[in-house]
Amino acid sequence: MTRVVFVLLPEVHLLDLAGPAQVFSTAAAFGPSYTLDYVAEREQVRSAQGLPLAARTDWPALGRDDLVVVPGWRAPALRGGVRLSPATADRLRAHHAAGGTVASVCAGAEALGQAGLLDGRRCTTHHQLQDELAARHPRATVVRDVLFTTDDRVVTSAGIASGIDLALHLLAARHGPSLAARVAREMVIYARRNGNEAQASVMLRHRSHVDDTVHRVQDLIEARYAEPLPLARLAAHAGVSARTLTRQFTRATGGLTPLRYQQALRLERAEHLLGHGATVESAAREVGFEDARMLRRLRSRPPAQHPANDHGTAPDRHEKTQASYF
């Protein structure tokens, strides 16, 4: 069981809170065990929209796999606004020091800054507050024009609805992209990201469409990307012909065939493994390549030619010879 603790501060924005809470509660319906807790320095907190919220004043016991989220609050400016109590700041620091993840939405980044968690790290916040956040916390690097940033288990998001993107990112990192996509569709939203690792996310880059047939096939590829997946099997899974699937898939994903989509997922996972010390050979085997040659070939392509970005429709030689083994 994973706990997600939301720290409610005065004038908390409802969507900053409700968006991530909905993501994690929806994820729990698909298998992962999430328990949501709401803590505050008082038993009742008034939201920015006027709705009073009840919270507990004692914190539950937390482990390193648990998550603490600070939603934002009404903040025309950060100066003169919400101040953390020393006890709450200590809680945030202690959870991070113990190996846990701490996240914020919108003005919640200011709370992380008050706790000293932004020093030496990348962060972001609502575009109207970025200049002030940078001035108030000069040891932080405020990143602009992104939905969220991640840096050493400190995750910050831009504002309001971007908390949903942040939560989907955390789900994908912990449980894989397929679960994040299922949750996004259940919530009837686009699964999108736009920051740091998210900019390179294969799944979220090619999930912003409304073709349910293609979504079902993407679910299968994402769940079994390391296995051979013949086109006929994918088409049968979708209940359409192979020709129809290829046409719909290419149109929905901006030019990718199912094979190139699977290759892109494999490459992304392999890069993650390599970044954590794996050899090229072991990473290739882990993601489903028979040997390291294909992985080396894909990695050697310029970024514009990587499978995740290649919008050409003509298959290369390898794709022609391997087309029956998606």
Based on the model shown, name its key terms:
sequence-specific DNA binding, Arc Repressor Mutant, subunit A, disordered C terminus, single chain, 12% strand, Rossmann fold, transcription, 2 domains, DNA-binding transcription factor activity, alpha/beta, elongated, 326 residues, six-stranded mixed β-sheet, transcription regulation
Structural description of this entry:
InterPro entries: Class_I_gatase-like (IPR029062), DJ-1/PfpI (IPR002818), Homeodomain-like_sf (IPR009057), HTH_AraC (IPR018060), INH-QAR (IPR052158). Keywords: Transcription, Transcription regulation. This is AraC family transcriptional regulator. Residues 313-326 have a biased composition (Basic and acidic residues). Residues 299-326 are annotated as: Disordered. It is a single chain. The chain has two domains: 2-182, Rossmann fold (3-Layer(aba) Sandwich), CATH 3.40.50; 209-321, Orthogonal Bundle (Arc Repressor Mutant, subunit A), CATH 1.10.10.60. The chain is elongated. 43% of the residues lie in helices and 12% in strands. The protein is of the alpha/beta class and 326 residues long. It has a six-stranded mixed sheet with strand order 2-1-5-6-10-9, sandwiched between helices. Strands 3-4 form a two-stranded antiparallel sheet. The protein has a two-stranded parallel sheet with strand order 7-8. The two termini are 35 Å apart. The protein has helices at 14-28, 86-97, 108-114, 130-136, 162-175, 177-186, 202-205, 212-223, 231-238, 242-252, 258-275, 280-287, 292-300, 317-321; strands spanning 2-7, 34-39, 44-46, 52-54, 67-70, 101-105, 122-123, 141-142, 148-151, 154-157. The chain has 14 helices and ten strands.
